[in-house]
Amino acid sequence: MYKLILSARTRKELKKVPKQHREAILLALDEVKNDPFEGKPLSRELIGRFSYRVGVYRVIYQVNKQNQTIYISTAAHRGKVYKRK
Known about the structure:
Keywords: Toxin-antitoxin system. The chain contains 3 helices and 5 strands; from the N terminus they run E-H-H-E-E-E-E-H. With about 80 residues, the chain is of the alpha+beta class. Strands 1-5-4-3-2 form a 5-stranded mixed sheet. A hairpin with a 2-residue loop joins strand 3 (about 50-55) and strand 4.
């Protein structure tokens, strides 16, 4: 099982998400922790990252196989999440 590391931005974004969606995202993070390669590999400027779909929200993360860690860079509405760097 991998260890999750949430960025400060992710923590802020999760506070803004409605409670029912936040709970769904947290459940999805447990799934990602068990199988980090279940998410969709991203391309272009986000190459090396994965996207995990949770309703209308997306969780963007990177996997470090060596350290067995997953770095969650952002979790936001799908309309906003890909526009950030």
